[in-house]
Amino acid sequence: MLSDYQGLVDRLVRDDAGKLTAADRDEAIGLALIRYGQARPRQGVADVAPTGDTLPLPAGWVVGSSTLAGLEYPIGQVPPASIPGELYLGPDGLVVMLAGRPAGPVRVRYTLQHALSATEDTIPPADREAVAKYAAALLCEQLASFYASDTDSTISADRSFGQTRSQAFAARAREYRKQFQAALGIDEKTAAPAGAVVQIQTTDSRGRSRMFHGRG
């Protein structure tokens, strides 16, 4: 539950000077929950009755967060049968536009936000430490920024100590992020947008190579 993550994050960060508040910690846990959900989305399933060639969204659908993972119809076939469909914003709101008119309910598979509170925790126990480490990374980054900009003291030794603390928390933040990525199998390089420049080999209207591109 939430208290378990709060205690684990506190132990990972070790903010002995008390620069962070409980609200800072809980906000970091909330952000870590969102980041975890992007890597390991929670799966939802619901059987929904169609209206003609459209399908209302399941009751558990969260607009702006949930995504459509699959549509099964007819239900119960082995192997499962599927029906094409896509999200469509109509006059009455967001629905699923189907490729046909099913005669019975359609099984909708979709993603959900993970829940974490005093009474609910949808994160698998094996991933609890990874989520806590991502939250701790965010807090360590805050502390690194704080100590880097702390210029209240006019004593050089104190300023040097602040710089050392900043570097230590920054290094800890980087390490916690790496451990989070390793635990979930995330490769940040593959997650980055990819681009490429492609030279298209074409001919002119007379079938000859163009001036700037030789024939491939």
* Annotation, overall tally of beta strands: 6
Kindly report how far apart the N and C termini lie. Answer: 61 Å
**Low-confidence parts lasting 5 or more residues at pLDDT below 50?**
192-216
How would you state the average pLDDT, rounded? 84
β-sheet strand percentage: 15-25%
Structural class: alpha+beta
Strand order in space, largest sheet:
1-6-3
Tell me the major beta sheet: 3 strands, antiparallel
What is the H/E order? HHEEEEEEHHH
The number of helical runs is 5
Percent helix, as a range, is: 25-40%
So what's the overall shape?
Answer: elongated
Query: From the alpha-carbon coordinates, what is the Rg to the nearest angstrom?
Result: 26 Å
Describe this structure in words.
This protein is α+β, with helices and mostly antiparallel strands. Helices cover 39% and strands 15% of the residues. The chain is built from 5 helices and 6 strands; from the N terminus they run H-H-E-E-E-E-E-E-H-H-H. It has helices at residues 2-13, 22-39, 128-149, 156-184, 188-191, and strands at 42-48, 54-55, 68-72, 85-90, 93-98, 106-112. The chain has a 3-stranded antiparallel beta sheet, with no helix packed on it. Strands 2-5-4 form a 3-stranded antiparallel beta sheet, with no helix packed on it. Helix 2 packs across helix 3. It starts with a helix and ends in a 25-residue tail after the last helix.
